[in-house]
């Protein structure tokens, strides 16, 4: 199943993009992430690691592509047999920015993840830290 979520907020697009780029910042805007374990603290094509979630669940990931010029990136995550590809982009919008997430995963995973992702994205694009 493929689904998209678009959220707008008051953050400058460069601020929202920097929140994506810096893995150390992910727990500050994504409440389902407590830690990111990777060889680098910045997203880059080919970077692999683990996202640590609720109850210490570790979800392997690989960054597939990053294009800082268009403020877009994609990655693949896997939890057991369930694999998802997530494509992200940040764009200027009146009063701040918009971010779009396109999720490609099994239907139950998309349905379950959508509300959590929407909450995280609202926090990503908020004007305050």
Explain how this protein is built:
The protein is an alpha+beta fold and 129 residues long. It is 24% helix and 43% strand. It is built from 3 helices and 7 strands, in the order βααββββββα.
List the helices and strands and how they pair.
Elements: E1 2-9, H1 13-21, H2 26-29, E2 35-38, E3 48-52, E4 58-67, E5 72-79, E6 82-93, E7 96-104, H3 107-124
Antiparallel strand pairs: 1-7, 2-3, 3-4, 4-5, 5-6, 6-7
Q: Terminal Cα separation, in Å? A: 33 Å
Uncertain segments are: none
Spatial extent as radius of gyration: 14 Å
- Classify the secondary structure makeup into a structural class: alpha+beta
* Strand adjacency order, main sheet: 1-7-6-5-4-3-2
**At the third CATH level, what is the topology name?**
Alpha-D-Glucose-1,6-Bisphosphate, Chain A, domain 4
Main sheet record: 7 strands, antiparallel
Number of strands: 7
User: If classified by CATH, what would the architecture be?
Assistant: 2-Layer Sandwich
Helix content: 10-25%
What string, H for helix and E for strand, traces the elements in order?
A: EHHEEEEEEH
CATH superfamily annotation: START domain
Which percent band covers the strand fraction?
Answer: 35-45%
Helical element count? 3
Q: Name the CATH class.
A: Alpha Beta
Query: What number of domains?
Result: 1
Indicate the overall shape.
globular
Mean pLDDT: 97
């Amino acid at each position: 199943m493929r689904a998209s979520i678009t959220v707008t907020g008051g953050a400058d697009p460069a601020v929202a993009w920097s929140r994506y780029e810096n893995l150390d910042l992910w727990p500050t805007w994504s409440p389902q992430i407590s830690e990111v374990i990777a060889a680098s603290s910045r997203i880059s094509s080919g970077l692999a690691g683990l996202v640590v979630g609720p109850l210490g669940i570790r979800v392997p990931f690989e960054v597939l592509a990053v294009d800082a010029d268009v403020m877009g990136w994609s990655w693949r995550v896997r939890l057991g047999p369930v694999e998802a590809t997530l494509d992200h982009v940040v764009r200027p919008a009146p009063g701040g920015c918009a971010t779009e997430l396109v999720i490609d995963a099994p239907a139950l995973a998309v349905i379950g993840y959508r509300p959590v992702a929407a909450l995280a994205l609202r926090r990503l694009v908020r004007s305050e830290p």
